[in-house]
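Internal tracking record. Fields below are filled automatically when a chain is submitted to the structure queue. Please do not edit lines marked as system-generated. If the sequence contains nonstandard residues, flag them in the REMARKS field before resubmitting.
Queue: standard
Priority: normal
Entity type: single polypeptide chain
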Amino acid sequence: MKPMLAYNFTGQNSKGWWMSEKLDGVRAIWDGSNLLSRNGKIFHASRWFLEGLPKNEILDGELWQGRGLFQQTVGKVRTQYEPDWSGIKFVVFDVVNADTFEKRLQLLQTLDLPDHVKIVEQIQCKNREHLEHYKTTIIDSGGEGVMLRAAGSFYEHKRSNSLLKIKRMQTAEAKIVGYKKGNGKHLGRIGALICKYKGKLIRLGTGLTDQQREIPPQIGTKVTFSFFELTTAGMPRFPVFLAKRDYE
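SYSTEM-GENERATED OUTPUT FOLLOWS
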């Protein structure tokens, strides 16, 4: 069975999508009899680990020991003889069937699962600021990033535009060279800082507080911002203002 794979998030409108923590574990599919890798290899789990898993449902999830413990998890799940799976959890984020994602979530909640099997928390995204706050909270706590699933989407056995991933953000510095006027709720205030980054102009709007929009940092000030990755043209994707570069 081919599992559903994610594309990278590139700033798409995330309102209404389902957000969950991106776990730094090992992808695993429970097919009713065995735990399989994304390439179909059988994990030789401890017998107790398999007991209690449903025989009539296909579960998609991660073998996970905790944040920052990827190498320890890999070391355990790759063992074939007398494996020690203590401390590992099977964190499930999907059921593989033909229903919408919401119905699959409802089904997950009705399953009688053993204590070492957990269901990942899914939160519906309100807007980009909600996503940014959620992502920052996870990464500041040592998490890997965020997964996004389109509302009403179906399970696809391939890489899908209905499933997106956001990994840890990078940071960089830029210099303020101007301001973009705000509109809507920011009318009369600053909508974004116009900054120069490696000879290119970028706008930093997300991340500014109301006070910073009222009294923005002065032109010429160096600022720190975060971003997901660079485009092929060298432009930061989804840049977010963090702070003035005056804390060193």
